[in-house]
Every structure is written in structure tokens, then in C-alpha cells.
Amino acid sequence: MEKLLVSYQTFFTSKRIRSLLTGILFLILALIAQAFASSYATRNSNQFVGDFFLEYLPVINLNLIIIEGAFCETILVAILLLLKPSRLIFTLKAVAIFIAVRAFMISVTHLGVYPGQITPDPGFLGSIYSALNLQAGYFFSAHTGLPILVALIFWDERPWRYLFLALSIVFGISVLIAHVHYSIDVFAAPFMTYSIFKLAQYLFAEDYALITTTRF
Length: 216
Prior knowledge:
The chain is built from 10 helices and no strands. It is an all-alpha fold and 216 residues long.
């Protein structure tokens, strides 16, 4: 533990601390934008549209994966970033862009709830999920996209790359079976996510360089 603290002190120079705080600010602003976008989309949602895949898929309650699973994934990513802080600053900023772009997309796509959609369970995590109105946003699927974004950030570490790509597939299938996303939300997520990742690489090149130039 003492060695880890010394490494942290060496790594986080005043310049990197400022960049870290900027990333945290970006993330907070993106989350606020998402909250407004979800609320706006809910008030202006129209009737549902037809979906070839959802018409034939059975409706199954997979909240255990969609809600509890996503929470566990978030905890895992947080632990990984604490152990590998060279990726922390870039990840914060990349996720902030992801959420901000998705907030914009949500605000301009007012799709109605598809029939049979599974609603969040009334448990602790389900209540948080509902309170944050996370079930209101459709295009594009964060459950599918965020694990891909993490996989791209950890691309040079094969076990984590494969794990998060697998999680993306599991989440993508789950949200379709639970009818909480349209199929276009899931199928578009990899392309949107890759574009966001490349944009983050361009905008925050110095932060991304820390991943390849430092071992910590």
C-alpha cells in the first residue's frame, strides 16, 4: 500500500491533477446534460415504432443483468482505474464525451416505450436507476457502448479487452430481450462508440499518451 501511495504521488503532478479535475468537471456536466435530455425525451416521447427483432424476441425480465450487472461493471472499472491511474484521466474525458453525445441523441429521438418493456425492479439499485431516469434514453445503448469504450481504452491488455467486449454482447442481448432498447440502439452503439473514442483520442491526445508512455 505504501509503495502504491508513493507511486500515486509521483504520477500525479500538479498538471495532471488539474487535468484530472477537468475530467471530473466534464463528467459532471455530461451527467447533468443527460438528466435534462432524459427528462425532455420522456415529456416528448411519441408512439412506439415497429422493430423487426423485438417482434420475435421473447420478453424476459433481465434486470439482474441490466441493473445489478451494470452496477458491478461500474465498480470493476473504478477499481481498474484506481490500480491503473495512467488511464484514469483519459477515461473520464472519453466517458464524458460519450454521455454528452448520447444526451444530444436522446434529446432529438423521441421514441415511445415498446410494448412489454420490462421496468426497473423496486429494489435499492432499481430505485436509483428509476430516480436517475436511466430507462428513458434509447438511442444509442449505453449498456452496449460503454463496455466497448472501456475495451478500447484497455485494448493493449487482452484479458480486459475480451471481458468488456463480452460484457457488451451480454448487455446488448439483455436489453433487447427485456425490450428496454430498440434494436437500432444496440446495433448502432459500436459505431457511435468507436467514433467517440477516436474523437477523444484527438481532443485529449496528451491524456491518451499517458496510457502508452507510463506503466503505472
